[in-house]
Every structure is written in C-alpha cells, then in structure tokens.
Amino acid sequence: MKSYLAERLDRIIHDVSAVSNIEAADLMKRLAQGENLAQAAETDSDSLLYQLLAQANENMNAFVTAGSVSEDDAAVFKTDYAAGVSKLLSVNE
C-alpha cells in the first residue's frame, strides 16, 4: 500500500491535470514560473484538495469493492494521501 501511495503522490501533476482539465505540460510551465499547484490549476487549494481526494477515494473504493485492498488499508491510504496532498498544496502558498 505504501508503494501505491508513493506512486500516487509522484503523479500529482497527472492527477491535477485530470481534475482541472489543464494539460500537464501547461501545469509544469506555470509551476516553473512560480505558481503553486492550485494557481496553476486555476482554482483554490481547498477545491483542488477536495477534487484530488474525491478522485483518489473513488479509486481506492473500487479496489476495496474488487477485494484487492482491505477497508483498513484503504482508510490508511486515504489519510496518508490527504496529508501528502495537503503538504504539496502548501508549497509556495
């Protein structure tokens, strides 16, 4: 589960791109110009956090339903992912 958490946090740009409908390359350019993730995604941090958590929770719930992840492991992932995303969103705020 920890490897999936690390992978999910490593692909944060992809996930932000998916929830914001902004190309990853454009996000990277805006980040390089000093914007934070929420600014690059043209939203506020709370909204972006909500969208990212909703997406990750939906994926994790599907894993639980499929029987590939226990509910306890999913709960730990959700908590750890929320903390990791919150930390990333606080960069350059």
Task: Describe this entry's structure for a reader.
With 93 residues, the chain is mostly helical. Helices cover 77% and strands 0% of the residues. The radius of gyration is 14 Å and the shape is elongated. The termini are far apart.
Q: Mind telling me the C-alpha Rg?
A: 14 Å
> Can you count the beta strands?
0
Helix content: over 70%
Tell me what portion of residues adopts beta-strand conformation. under 5%
- Mean pLDDT across the residues is 93
Order of helix and strand elements from N to C terminus:
HHHHHH
Low-pLDDT parts are none
Distinct helical segment count = 6
Distance between the termini: 29 Å
Overall body shape: elongated
Which structural category fits the helices and strands?
mainly alpha
Most strands sheet: none
Topology, pairings included?
Layout: H1 2-10, H2 12-20, H3 24-32, H4 37-40, H5 45-66, H6 71-89
Helix pairs in contact: 1-6, 2-5, 5-6
Which tags fit this structure?
elongated; 93 residues
Question: Care to give the gist of this entry?
Answer:
The protein is an all-alpha fold and 93 residues long. It is 77% helix and 0% strand.
